[in-house]
Design goal:
The chain has 407 residues and is of the alpha/beta class. It folds into 3 domains: 176 residues, FAD/NAD(P)-binding domain; 124 residues, 3-Layer(bba) Sandwich (FAD/NAD(P)-binding domain), CATH 3.50.50.60; 68 residues, 2-Layer Sandwich (Enolase-like, domain 1). It has 9 helices and 26 strands. The strands form 7 sheets. Strands 3-2-1-7-19 form a 5-stranded parallel beta sheet. A 5-stranded parallel beta sheet has the order 9-16-10-11-12, covered by helices on one side. Strand 25 and strand 26 form a beta hairpin. Helix 1 runs parallel beside helix 7. The termini are far apart. The structure holds flavin-adenine dinucleotide (FAD). Flavin-adenine dinucleotide (FAD) binds next to helix 1, helix 7 and strand 22.
């Protein structure tokens, strides 16, 4: 029985939604909590979808954040396979696709995003995949077997993780990237070169500056990936990893301010004071980046989900996280703290070729961001240097003999 009469509705039963729901209970909210999702699974974490789940080493159930029993124990009403069709702000209710109407006092949007599709002919042919959900990973995993020819479209984080997993499973992998280098938007040239070398050393073919113009398949024939320059690559399976489209349509249709996602303030509040947003769908000003951004990361989904729930309960919240992201490829653990920018001075510590290294990004004597490979301990210190705004010299950072702990 709920002693409080108010209702908090969360749309999107993913990582941010799960943490928001759990936090409402942990903060003592005794009213009704509804967690509405459109997938069949209880809330789960997605990072292993391109890693251990795709390689068959982890079961999808191991990703669950809260299973059905845990949700019941927390008295969270979880609606599965229940897409929300619209938000009626004037009446404070959400309308499900099946027509049900649910009244809310506070609403938290955690609708995440979906894989961006490649807008070319043949993109819906069998054999062309994207990866965002457990269902996607279950379809794709068995196809990444020894001898299979896999084309990965997009040399960003998810594309490269799929390429690494597929090659580990014995597939012949080609990565096609339109830009001049891998992960061009998020890492410096030296790291792109390192990633490139790492993939090539594992037998992955990397085509840079190459655009996919379409897919075709003759009866019984292979899937043909046609490039803009006229070349064609035959394969069994293509995986398109070209980014994410935020699921902000509900918010936009309801008249909330959106700009490449749902705009929120440091209290995770949208332009409607009773509606909050968190996770991949939310755009907020980030002081570490010096601009507004949408953080697509595990850390942000959890922490902003928690912050949005606390804010919905009227607690003091000032959410402005130092962004953190990691990726695992070919046995290398890469981590990024902060938001590297071309205007930063880059200082390297260690040797990328030797496998363990950190790139520091400096503005004057301040470390603004750090990116490392197989350097978890050093990155922990780098994080402190960033958060404490400690003045440092480029010379000390570059010298492995100078202890970061002492700095
Ligand atoms: C393959 C993959 C690998 C990743 N690897 C890493 C990594 O290594 N490191 C890292 O930091 N991050 C990684 N991420 C990113 C991280 O998983 C996401 O940032 C995180 O899942 C975002 O959580 P979210 O709750 O905002 O969105 P989601 O987890 O996408 O949840 C949103 C949920 O809302 C549902 N929904 C949408 N619209 C509606 C509607 N109208 N009605 C009802 N439900 C709706 C969606 O179907 C979904 O279930 C990875 C992501 C993927 C896909």
């Amino acid at each position: 029985m709920h002693t409080d009469q108010s209702t908090i509705v969360i749309i999107g039963a993913g990582q941010a939604g799960a943490w928001a729901a759990r936090t409402l209970r942990e903060e003592g909210f005794a009213g009704r909590v509804l967690l509405i999702g459109d997938e069949i699974h209880p809330p789960y974490e997605r990072p292993p979808l391109s890693k251990a789940v795709l390689s068959g080493e982890a079961a999808p159930e191991s990703l669950h954040i809260l299973d059905a029993a845990a949700l019941t124990a927390l008295s969270i009403e979880w609606l599965a396979k229940a897409p929300v069709a619209r938000i009626e702000r004037a009446d404070r209710r959400v309308i499900l696709a099946d027509g049900r109407a649910i009244r809310y006092d506070k609403l938290i949007l955690c609708t995440g995003g979906r894989a961006r599709e490649l807008d070319v002919p043949g993109n819906t042919l069998p054999g062309v995949h994207t990866l965002r959900t457990i269902a996607d990973a279950q379809r794709l995993g068995p196809l990444l077997r020894t001898g299979a020819r896999i084309v990965v479209v997009g040399g960003g984080w998810i594309g490269l993780e799929v390429a690494a997993t597929a090659s580990k499973r014995g597939a012949a992998v080609t990565v096609i990237e339109t830009m001049g280098r891998l992960c061009e938007r998020s890492v410096p040239e030296a790291l792109s070169a390192h990633l490139h070398g790492m993939h090539v050393a594992q037998g992955v073919d990397v085509l840079l500056g190459a655009a996919v113009a379409g897919f075709a398949r003759a009866a019984q024939g292979p899937l043909e990936v046609m490039l803009g320059d006229g070349r064609t690559i035959d394969c069994d399976t293509a995986v398109v990893g070209i980014g994410l489209v935020p699921n902000d349509e509900l918010a936009r249709a309801a008249g909330l301010d959106c700009e490449g996602g749902v705009l929120v303030d440091a209290q995770c509040r949208t332009s409607d004071p009773d509606i909050f947003a968190a996770g991949d769908v939310a755009v907020a000003r980030n002081s570490w980046a010096g601009r507004r951004l949408r953080l697509e990361s595990w850390q942000n989904a959890q922490d902003q989900g928690i912050a949005a729930a606390r804010s919905a309960l009227g607690r003091d919240v000032d959410y402005d996280p130092l962004p953190w992201f990691w990726s695992d490829q070919h046995g290398t653990n890469l981590q990024i703290y902060g938001v590297p920018s071309p205007r930063h001075q880059v200082v390297v510590r260690g040797d990328p070729a030797a496998g363990s290294f950190v790139f520091f990004y400096l503005e004057g004597e301040r470390v603004m961001a750090a990116l490392g490979g197989n350097a978890a301990r050093e990155l922990r210190f780098a994080r402190r240097l960033i958060e404490r705004r400690t003045p440092v010299s480029a010379q000390d950072l570059a010298d492995p003999a100078v202890s970061l702990a002492k700095l």
